[in-house]
Amino acid sequence: MSTVFGTEGPVLVMAPHPDDEVLGAGGTIAKLSDEGREVHVAVVTRGMPPNFSEQFTETVRAEAQRAHAHLGVTETHWLDFPAAQLSELPHSELNSGIGALVRQIDPNVLLVPHIGDIHLDHQQIFLSSLVAARPHSNDFPGTILAYETLSETNWNAPYLSPAFLPNVFADITTTLQRKLDAFAMFESQVKAEPHERSIKSLKALATLRGATVHRSACEAFVLIRHAI
Fold first, then answer.
1. Using an 8 Å Cβ cutoff, are 103 and 12 in contact?
2. Is the pTM of this model over 0.90?
C-alpha cells in the first residue's frame, strides 16, 4: 500500500460501534492484513440496557468477530464504554481508556472516525483519539487518517460542521468483495436497498471513490497527520 500507510508497524482502527470499521475501512484492513501488517480494531462502545438488550449486544459482537476474522484483523479490543452516551461521560475517562490502548499497541497508523460525523460518539472518539496520539514522547502514531461512515459522515450539515473532504484514496479493488462480505456478516445491521446501509450502497460508494482517482474501487480518508 502507499507510503501514507507505511510498510511496517501496527495499525489501529478506532470503531465507535461494531460495523463502523468495516463500513469505513474494511477494504483497507483486508489489504493491509494481506500484506502482513498487524491490524487491530478497537470497538469503543457497548450497547447497554435499557437502550440495547444484552441479547442484541452479544449478537452484534459475534457478528463483528466473524467479520474481523474474514478481514484478517489481528485482534479486536472491546473498550465497553456506553453506546450513545459518551457525551454524558467525563471526557477524561474516554481519554484515559483510548490513551491506554494506544500506548499498549503503539501503532504507526491510526484510523479514526471523522469529526464531522453526525453521531456524537464519533465526534468524542475522534477527539479522544487525537489526545491519545499527541506527540509527547518518541513513540506516537506518525499517521492519522479519518474514514467515512455511511449514515453518519454524510448527514451532518457541512456549513455547521467540518465536511468530509478526502485527500487520501486507498485502492481496494482486490479486497472490495471481502469488505462487502464482511459487512454482510452484520446481519442485524444490513438494510435492504436503497437504504444507505445496504450492500449495494456500500459498493456504490467504493465505486464512486475509486472513479475519483481512476480506480475501480477505493476507500477515502482525510489525512490528519503524516510524520515522515
1. no
2. yes
